[in-house]
Amino acid sequence: MLEDKNQERTSLEKLGEFGLIQHLTKSFKLNHKSTLKGIGDDAAVLDFGGKKAIVSTDMLVEGVHFDLSYMPLKHLGYKSVMVNLSDIYAMNAIATQITVSIAVSNRFPLEALEEFYAGVALAAELYKVDLIGGDTTSSTKGMIISVTAIGEANEADITYRNGAKPNDLLVVSGDLGGAYCGLQVLEREKEVFKVNPNNQPDLSPYTYIIERQLKPESRKDIKGLLQGLEIKPTAMIDISDGLSSEILHLCKASEVGCNLFEEKIPLDPTVISACEEFSIDSTLVALSGGEDYELLFTIDQKDFPKIKGNPHFSIIGHMTDKNEGANLVSRSDTKIPITAQGWNSFS
Ligand code: ADP
Ligand code: MG
């Protein structure tokens, strides 16, 4: 969590732009057949044969999307890749390549960028994607990161947001709210640190939720899990902004309504205890917290026996006719319209 003040600092000017790119990218290897040309020319060249190419891009801005006072740069590199791969997996595709572009001010030494790239390299290795290019430039203040992820899929496997039908089941992978709770812990410790820099907090009870915030994983495994169950989702989206916002996207794109059952929302025990500690409602956290990078999808009702009881998935509701709207069915069995910020009774 704390910055090591004794680190070496090599000025970026020493290397020059080309030296820097070469230095940061030299250890990356290409593993995909589809990567014909990676880093080193004016553009990369890809060949997906008979498959469709899937492309997604995201930008991360210091002070808006991340805070370097508690986000180690290696984690930031890893998370920047995860955020983008998640969008490829949400199309039911396989991620194959990434480009990574960075803008940094002269406050960043070479060692800081090495840390960032160590995170990128770990993500690329674990998720089997080739780094095929990027751009390196300077900023007047702060760090800006843009990652583009590229993937491949058979046309028939691609899952859009618009395929859900009334009576389809609404399913989510993993559990929700952890990343937001982790952020609350980190923000609190940052304030404590400002007052007492020598305080060594015991964060071990929060390991899971802090990892969900600082080192999220994206759900590369879901495509294969669903294939193994012989289920083709009818619609899919990744949970970057919170369950309620993603449900509304699915409903809008598919022109359906939905009933989401509060009691079915999957929460890790550490999320429940952190919510108690911070006096926040755990349902609200799952609905509005965001950054969980789980996948939310719909399946035909006939597939219920195939997925029922599966530890990777929770069936949290079902889709309805559009005119019924998108609703949360609370534990006390009242229907509350879902809004992007959570739901009305809490605003
Ligand atoms: P150009 O002037 O054509 O934009 P660059 O000098 O920016 O070329 O980049 C040279 C090569 O290095 C290209 O293949 C580019 O994709 C790659 N590259 C540049 N910056 C990065 C980076 N931060 N990470 C990975 N690859 C990079
Ligand atoms: Mg360039």
Automatic annotation (TrEMBL):
Could you read off the lineage of the organism from its UniProt record?
Answer: Bacteria, Pseudomonadati, Bacteroidota, Flavobacteriia, Flavobacteriales
The Swiss-Prot or TrEMBL record describes its family as follows: Belongs to the thiamine-monophosphate kinase family.
The cross-references to Pfam families, in alphabetical order and at most eight, read: AIRS
Which GO molecular-function terms appear in the entry? ATP binding; magnesium ion binding; thiamine-phosphate kinase activity
**Which amino acids does the record list as binding Mg(2+) 2?**
D58, D87
Tell me which residues bind substrate.
Answer: H65, E291, W343
Give the NCBIfam families listed for this entry: thiL (TIGR01379)
Q: What is this protein called?
A: Thiamine-monophosphate kinase
List where this protein forms a coiled coil. none
